[in-house]
């Protein structure tokens, strides 16, 4: 089995490519450390949404809807307000339609390649970003921290390890999500109607007109019950919904099955993610985003227990990490 890691190009952008047998993947360190491609070259499967006919410029304009973007802090914050430990920080209001801050600072900026290489069974790359008082986001979110992402590729698929370290002297919030954009269909010979998705959702949070949780829950509809149980087409209705995550059989995951080919992509996200955001671009066939998220949307502004809404801290010198994996069943 050929196993390689090397620096190259992805549509003209600097990339680190990983290869391991039938699989290949590419990371774009200069645009958010985004893992922009995960493919099965033997079958022609492309599991993640890549810049297509619109090209790399479309990706640069909307980096949150391709590959695996890093959201830190994730999703929406009311009026950009971020209360923490007796202070209120003001994030930029960058979503005019809602008057909220959206998606944080890390998915659009350059990361550094720390290491890449290959061994007997795996190729890998580690990218990192270090935020301190010199980083542009520090004036809004004045914490010093390092985020590292390690991707490994092997015959077992694609692994992801994320590590956050508090480099500073203040207690900082630890809020993270991935706006993972999954293709449906991922097989060139299939159509979106051939696909069924199952996700380990629990309850659906009620959202206001500004897409902020009210603190209440809404009952799941019949198709959402199928989403949790046996699976449903990813485009059964427009989705921009927020759910609690409830592991099944010890795992917090999405399973996307091509019923025509009998192949399932598994996204095992890890149980540290207590929430899911699910967005399908207005039920437009082609891709959707199952987004594992540590915290409830707008968590610092919610009067709910921290453990319930995934709002927790890192003390100076502390680490947080989690692992995830993409793999394929039925090949």
UniProtKB/TrEMBL annotation:
It comes from the Bacteria. Coiled coil: none annotated. One of its GO terms (molecular function) is isomerase activity. This is Aldose 1-epimerase. GO terms for biological process: carbohydrate metabolic process. It holds the Pfam family Aldose_epim.
